[in-house]
Structures are given as structure tokens and as C-alpha cells.
Amino acid sequence: MLTRRTMLGGAVAAALVEGRGLGTVARSVAAQGVPGAATLRKRLGARMLMRGNPDYEAMRQLAVFNARKPNRFPNAIVMAESVDDVQNAVRYAKARGWKVGIRSGGHGWVGSHMRDGALLISLANLRELRVEPETMTAIISPSITGDGLNAVLQGEHKLMTPSAHGVSVGMGGFVMCGGHGWNSRVWGPGCQQLKAIDVIDADGNLIHATAEEHNDWLWAARGAGPGYFGAAVRYYLQVHPMPQVMRRNGYTFDLSHLEEVTAFLRNNTPKFPAHLEVVMLGRMIDGRPGLFVGASGFGSEEEVRGALDAFDAAPVFRKAATRKVQQPFVAPSRYESPTESLPAGYRIVIDNIWTNAPSEQLVPLMRSLFENLPGERFNIFFQCWGPVREVPNAAYSVQGEIYISANAVYMDEAEDAKNDAWALDAIRRLHPISVGAQMNDENMALDPQRYLSEEASKRLEELRARYDPEGRFVSFLMKA
Ligand SMILES: Cc1cc2nc3c(=O)[nH]c(=O)nc-3n(C[C@H](O)[C@H](O)[C@H](O)COP(=O)(O)OP(=O)(O)OC[C@H]3O[C@@H](n4cnc5c(N)ncnc54)[C@H](O)[C@@H]3O)c2cc1C
Question: Which of 294, 177, 291 has the alpha carbon at shortest distance from 228?
Fold first, then answer.
């Protein structure tokens, strides 16, 4: 069955009869009937802001959550309000020979979609959100935020899907980069929830991709992140029954307990029940570097109570400075926590690794990392992710049992270079134990690690060459 939904009319039929591929159709139709740049420009109207337009700079700034705005300037920004707008914008870029960057929720700290001389298409004004409980599917624009989506899923349907731990993160980048969200140790990462996708290709055609048809587009959307070769305009996401209970334990520690706490977390990560999500945050507590450990449980009353009680029974928690157990909470939160590791309004630099290093190797590397927090909001995030479960049919292909990121969070522009160096230096010290890095917090420009397996990288490059031979869509940002 033909699922490419573009209205190609007779050209499609002719191509099918002649046994030509749809790529050929798209190209020949583009040559014949696609309007020129002037017509497309007119169709986009006031939604297209050329550089020099009085609103351009405000929209450019809004396109990136990070207060450290990229020093890169697209030729124009399209504030798309429909899928048609995205198609017209891609065709316009093609007519002008420009590249295209796509922004969903804008929370990628790097702002990979913001490129000099390109067309930036912002999906911020696409607000589709439909839930089909009978097929357990949420159909959304990629700009819908994880907390916004889950508010509807939970409030109206008692359903849920993994989304970012922080508020206001777009599902677009979260899913496309992998997506390590709430209850992902049970449901899998965000990309695993992506059952189908609607995407605009380099010629401006709309493709509906599933595992059965046009699977290359789905495979790549599940983990290729900024390396994707299309503009995703609609996600079809798996949703799950909302856990009956969400409760957590929280502990703070003096840094003197760092080694003991880290060893406990590392050694027990593979044994923590899947419905328990455990993280450690190194941050300033009362003006000194300290530790916060959180264990969040999802499931039935019995499952959650049992898992949190068992966690709390570990002797290491008797040494905590503060201890709160069995606290009800809502995930994702609708509001930013005062201790959010990546707060709004701050300049942010991140670098990260995945590691499988055993405790003996990992623990000795932790002190210099956790001790050295040069500012009040700087933090080290340590997530107990394993045991690693492979995601089928996905570009997403690098994971480790433990995830560690160094997050520089500050206000002063004059400190940019210093803080780039801080994040880089913190993570470079961990390179000997790294098995790769996470695309969601990618820092390819400064720290080019392995983000996809060799096999997945190779396939991605082949697909990019096949489906976007002119390189219409920007790819990974390898240089800041
Ligand atoms: C406060 C905060 C909390 C976070 N918490 C988590 C967390 O708990 N778990 C986790 O895994 N990550 C987390 N992240 C990282 C986050 O998942 C990534 O930065 C993600 O890319 C953000 O998605 P977005 O749509 O908001 O961002 P965007 O900046 O819009 O997207 C990032 C990149 O993805 C590509 N892209 C996005 N949408 C499309 C599209 N529709 N078509 C084609 N390409 C597209 C573009 O290259 C774009 O530059 C967090 C980030 C922040 C700032």
C-alpha cells in the first residue's frame, strides 16, 4: 500500500507502472510542478522572518532554551503553523539552495538546528495532540512538551509515556535523540515508544513511515538526533497505563560519603528493580559540594512500597544528613524544581559519558569530579540506567549501565570559555572508562565521542546519502 501521502497524482501512478522508485517521482515532480521561491515565499507570508526583519532576533533567541544563544544566524526563520508550511519551507530552501534546521522544543543545549546561512524551521506553533486509547497511541506534533503531553495522558486517560525529567522539554528532540525519561527502565527510552512518524523529506514530500513501510525513516528517527535527514512533523507514540503509585525516597549526604554512596549505587544498579529509578546529583548544598540521592518508584502500592523500603534498608542511608522516604510525587512535574539540574534562564554547557566500569575503576575517579563545582548551580548527574536493554529497529545503539554528565550552569557570558573547559575536562578524565556518550546531552563539537554504534553510524550515513543527497538538512554540529 502506498503510504507516502503527497498528492503526486498521475506522476505516482506512472512511476509505479514503470517500476521507478518514489524518490524518482519526487524529483521529477519537483522539476515539473513545484512552485518557485517567490510563490513559496508568498505562501509562507508573515510566518517567514528574513534576517533583518524586526522580529527575527527575538524568534532566533526563542528557538534555543539555553540562555547561551548560539552565535549562528540563519538566513530566515519560518514559524510553521501547519505541515503545509513545513513542506513549503523545505521547498523554498531547496529553491534557494539553503540548508534546513528543525526546532521542536528548543531544549537541545547546543542549538544544533541554528546554522549560519540556513533556513530555520520552528515547529513551536504546531500543537497537535490526540490520544487514541483504543490503540494506546498518542499522536503529537514534536514540539509538544513531555509534561504537556503527560498532563493530558494522565489527567484525561490515566495513561503515560516516558518524557524528560525536566519540564518543558520537547518530545521532538527527546525522542529523536534517544530519550531517557520517567519509568524508562520499564517502558524503554523515548525512541522505543515511536511507532510511526510523519516526516517531510528533502523535496518537501510528506512520508508516513512505520516498521512495515518506509522503515528507514522510522529507524533513523529512533536515535539519530541532529543527524536526522528530514523534518519530523508528527509522532505516533506508544502510551502505557499510568502507574497506580509514584513515590520516592530522597537523601542528602556530606561529600565525605561520596565513595561509599557511589560504590553502593554502582554495584546495585543492575539489581535495582526496573520500576525503581535511581539518580545521584552532585551539587552545592548549603554552600558546599554535597550529594543528593533520589529513588523514584512506579507501580502498584505493594511494588513501590516494597522497592523503596528495600532501598532505604541499605546501611549507607543511615549516614545521610537528611532522609525522606515514601514521598508521593507527580512525574513529570509541571513546574521547575528549585534544584533542577538544567534550569531555565541560565547559560548551560554539558558533556557526558556512558560507562560500564566496575566500582573499583569508577569510584576513584569520582572525587575530583564531584568536588570541583565552580559555581552554585553547577552539578554532576549520575544515573543508574542498567541493565542495558537493546532497542530494536533503532539508530539508538550506545548505552551503558551508568550515565554521568557534567553540567555547567551559570550566568556570566565572560565565563563561557572557562566553563566549556570545565565540562570538557571533567568528562575527559572519564574517557578511559567511557563506552560512548548520550545524544540527548551531546557535545560533539568539543568532545567527539561515540554516539552511535559503528554499524548504526554507517547505516545512517548511507540513508542520508540516499534520501538527502544534496544535504538539505543540517547534520551533526561538529564545530561550535
Ligand atoms: C531542562 C532539561 C531537562 C532534560 N531532561 C532530560 C531527561 O530527563 N532525559 C533525556 O534523555 N534528556 C533530557 N534533556 C535533553 C533533551 O532530551 C534534549 O536536549 C532534546 O533534544 C530536547 O528536545 P527538544 O525538542 O526540546 O529540543 P530541540 O532543540 O528542538 O531538538 C534538538 C535537536 O533535535 C533535532 N530535531 C528536533 N526536532 C526535530 C524534528 N521534528 N525533525 C528533525 N529534527 C529534529 C534538531 O537537530 C534539534 O537541534 C533535558 C534537557 C533540558 C534542557
Answer: 177
Please identify, among 122, 144, 163, the residue that sits at the C-terminal boundary of a domain.
122
ipTM above 0.95, yes or no: yes
Inter-CA distances, 283 with 19, 33, 206, 292, 374, Å: 61, 58, 46, 8, 10
Nearest residue (by CA) to ligand 1, atom 2, is 166
> Is the residue at 253 inside a domain?
yes
Q: What is the mean pLDDT of each run of 10 residues along the chain (480 residues)?
A: 31 32 38 82 97 97 98 98 98 98 98 98 98 98 98 98 96 98 98 98 98 98 98 98 98 98 98 98 96 98 98 98 97 90 97 98 97 97 97 98 98 98 98 98 95 98 98 92
Give the span between the Cα atoms of 54 and 70, in whole angstroms.
19
Pocket test residue of 102, 115, 206 for ligand 1, highest count of atoms within 8 A of CB: 102
Q: Is residue 475 part of a domain?
A: no
Would residue 451 count as lying in a domain? no
Residue 32: the pLDDT is 52
In a domain? residue 24: no
Which pLDDT value is given to residue 34?
Answer: 78
Mode of pairing for the β-strands spanning 129-132 and 137-140: antiparallel
Let me know whether 235 and 311 are in one domain. Answer: no
Strands (E), 202-300: 206-210, 231-238, 240-241, 245-254, 276-285, 288-299
Q: Is 157 found in the same domain as 83?
A: no
CATH assignment at residue 167:
3.30.465.10
Please list, in sequence order, all residues whose beta carbon lies within 8 angstroms of the beta carbon of residue 392, skipping any fewer than 6 positions away. Answer: none
Tell me which residue of 87, 376, 377 sits closest to 207, measured CA to CA. Answer: 87
In the structure, which protein residues have their CB atom closer than 6 angstroms to any atom of ligand 1? 65, 102-108, 112-113, 123, 142, 164-166, 169-170, 172-174, 176-177, 179-181, 225-226, 228, 231-232, 342, 440-441
Identity of residue 55? D
83 in the same domain as 183:
no
Domain final residue, candidates 214, 242, 270: 242
The enclosing domain of 52 has a CATH number of: 3.30.43.10
The residues facing 382 across adjacent strands are: 280, 404
pLDDT confidence of residue 31: 45
169, 278, 350, best to mutate for ligand 1 pocket (most atoms within 8 Å of CB): 169
Q: Is the dihedral of CA 68, 434, 189, 154 positive or negative?
A: negative
Q: Clarify whether residues 136 and 206 are in a common domain.
A: yes
Query: Among 358, 354, 104, which residue's Cα sits nearest to residue 234?
Result: 104
